[in-house]
Amino acid sequence: MRQAPATRLPSREELVEFIRARSGKVGVREIAQAFGAKNADRAALKRMLRELADEGRIDRRRKRLHHAGTLPPVVVADVTGRDRDGEFLARPTEWDEEAHGAAPVIRIHTPRRARPDEIAGVGDRALLRIERSGEETSGRVIKLIDRAKHRALGIFRALAGGGGRLVPIDKKQLGRELAIAADAAAGACDGDLVAVEVSRHGRFGLPGGRVVERLGSLKTERAVSLIAIHAHGIPHVFAHAALAEADAAPVVSPAGREDWRDVPFVTIDPPDAKDHDDAVYAAPDPDPRNRGGHIVDVAIADVAHYVRPGSQLDREAEKRGNSVYFPDRVVPMLPERISNDLCSLRPHVDRPALAVRMVIGADGRKRSHSFHRVLIRSAARLHYEQAQLGVSGRTDETTEPIADKILQPLYAAYRAMLHARDERGPLDLDIPERKIILKSDGMVDRVVMPQRLEAHRLIEEFMILANVAAAETCERAKVPLIYRVHDEPSPEKLNALREFLATLDISLPKGGTLRPDGFNRILARVKGRDVERLVNEVVLRTQAQAEYSPENFGHFGLNLRRYAHFTSPIRRYADLIVHRALIRALKLGVDGLSDAADTRSLAEIAANISATERRAMKAERETADRLIAHFLADRVGAIFDGHISGVTRAGLFVELDDTGADGFIPARSIGEEYFRFHEAGRAFVGRSATHRLGDPVAVELVEAAPVAGALRFRLVDGRGGRPTGPTKRTGPKQAGPKQAGFKQAGHGPRHDQKSGGKSGSRSGRGRRDRGRR
User: Fold this and answer.
1) Per-residue pLDDT tens digits for 411-447
2) CA distance 766 to 662
3) How many CA atoms lie within 13 A of 72 on its CB side?
4) Is 130 strand, coil or helix?
5) How many CB atoms lie within 10 A of CB 67?
């Protein structure tokens, strides 16, 4: 296109056209170079871009500029069909329809000499590289993430005359059964979890199928977690070559490593943790120039030593992306020989590690840091409560000898670091978590809300600082890496939050960017009020979802300019990439990131592991829902206390206070009077009562479907809701579609946002990553 003369700034229309036409990175620097803008003109240029973003004509997310509603260079997409010419069409797996309207259609270009893993079909999920030509968007398959599922999972229900029916396990498919003929049942018994190959979709009668695999009985918890594993296509059986490679791995020798075995590291984990990938130590800094300061050491298992680029273990780890944690089992990213043995920092055993030594000032700020490839010998293995009791003077045989020399210095360094954290002002949400405790038979015993201890926060702060140090070191050496990034909230979500807060008489200024401390001020205003939980939930849903990227645009939730996951390479592939980047940057060995690794190849890896992370979160959540639904199935008719966790046109979602179970109340059954849906206020408004997000309610359990993890409730008259005030609220004049009670049960607006460095769950650690995770 024709560029503007160097003597003037581009017009608004020229800016929009330039951004639309560019497929690569576009920022202020690129625009200034293209139009010849001088440094003195950049302030005016930034102001024009800010105005265009406020008008919705461009998208300023990720510190880069896109034409509003355009796709990134690499995207995960689902193949949805073909066009008239027979070419495959796809749509992005994740797309903000509220902000940008309908998802764009991507025409898939398949090269003539494409490999099998570059050929996609309808129903497949693939990683695409986006290419633009004029108004058309096309994509080339980088790799297939998941093949179309021509199999259905469900529970086999035997019929008296032979054969049976398949009851689907997907909430969205409730009521849509498959017919299984007697000669196609493969010996399945009533109540078995089975995989069925769909064989017929006729115009009349039920679709047919045949059982191809029996996965176990639903009466065991193992089958419940298997549902999620198979439903989401989570790889759970290691290739023989990968297992052989793990079994053949030798114990590491001290050669080529610094000997840190005299540093009394400790690991602090949940009591049921099986792998220990991080250890910590702190001591006062003896340097008189850093009076009151501290030396903090964080040692992380040296997984890169055992999992070399291109090896069978590496390919298996990249495919899995991360470990997946269920209440009774772990589907690990690496075989147990690696994760629970050679790389687990067990006490009194020599283990290889990549360690960072950080010098902390009395004000809690990091003054310097250095990375080392070391051999360590952990002095003790502690769990969180044990460490907390030990530093408080209630020691046991493990903490008694280390309380003064190890635990007290750790806590002293942590308390200094809190000053720097408070100045930084990360997003400080208070969302309770649940942990399911199982009985010996694998079924639910109880659901608890673990207490958040100072020991948890200590590990969180140490790991966050180590992650920052890793990103800084790689950047300084100009070595490519994968960042953990978290975008600022979109203008559309901020506007929705603004409208909602207005209903609580809380004003949110218009214009400009709301930083984490701005959200914290809102949360502080409602602290201790009856709307505290409600506002925390809404602020959480306002946040973007964290992800992995080879391009750095900062971490909004942590309020950090650069951040990279470094501290859990046993269970996250992103961390393994960062370890290799550090090894290459600091010349710590021959097993670092290869010279062939560049931003383009890392973009493909980042998109893939972001997708596997979301897959794991969904599978973990669905398994918890099924377990709790099974736990409550024999309590139909019981009354429970809860709160409204979601409000949609279809009805109300309710979360029970004691178990955290989610259920649904269809709009048509909210009450006998007429209710209007008020979107901005997240409420159903009636003549005498209002039911709003966050309101406490009493509900009766009407129906439970354990196989799908679905619950249906009914509001108990006179126990829940609030009188409708004089404020006029308007909304659509319909209470919601007429639908089956379970049609959307369980699909409430739970948010998979990963703020504050949070990333998946670990058995006993909860879903919040808290910087270490």
Assistant:
1) 999 999 999 999 999 999 887 788 888 887 777 888 8
2) 17
3) 22
4) strand
5) 16
